[in-house]
C-alpha cells in the first residue's frame, strides 16, 4: 500500500518543523526554523510517525513555486510526500520555465 501526504502546510519545503517531521519521522531538537524563529525543543517530544517518506519535489525547486492559481491569489501545495517503497515518482512538471514567467499578473 502507498501513502501520499499533500497539503498547504504554510512552511518551507526544506527547513521547517513540518518538513523535518515528514522527512525524518520526528522533529530533531534544535536547529529547525519556522518563519525565521527557532522551533521550541518541545517539538522533538512529538511522537514519531514511523513511515519512510520522500518528497516528490526535486531539490532544486524554487522557493516560490505554485501549484494552483485561483482568482488574484496563488494557492500553494508546499508539501507533497510519498512512500518510496510502494510509490515511484515517474516525473514532475515545471509550471514555470524561468523567473520571468513566474508572475501571476494577467493584464488581459
Structure write-up:
- This protein has one helix at residues 17-24, and strands at 4-7, 33-34, 37-38, 54-55, 68-70, 73-75, 79-82.
- 7% of the residues lie in helices and 19% in strands.
- The chain is built from 1 helix and 7 strands.
- It is mainly β and 108 residues long.
Topology, pairings included?
Elements: E1 4-7, H1 17-24, E2 33-34, E3 37-38, E4 54-55, E5 68-70, E6 73-75, E7 79-82
Antiparallel strand pairs: 1-7, 2-3, 4-7, 5-6
Alpha-beta content class? mainly beta
Largest beta-sheet characterization: 3 strands, antiparallel
Number of strands: 7
**Proportion of residues in β-strands:** 15-25%
Poorly predicted residue ranges? 100-108
One letter per element, helices H and strands E, the order comes to EHEEEEEE
Within the largest sheet, what's the order of strands? 1-7-4
On the 0 to 100 scale, the average pLDDT is 76
Helix proportion: under 10%
Task: Tell me, briefly, the overall form.
Answer: globular
Counting H and I runs of at least 4 residues, what is the number of helices? 1
Alpha-carbon distance between the two ends: 46 Å
Radius of gyration: 16 Å
Describe, in short, the structure shown.
The chain has 108 residues and is mostly beta strands. The protein is built from one helix and seven strands.
List keywords for this structure.
single chain; 108 residues; mainly beta; 3-stranded antiparallel beta sheet; two-stranded antiparallel sheet; globular; disordered C terminus
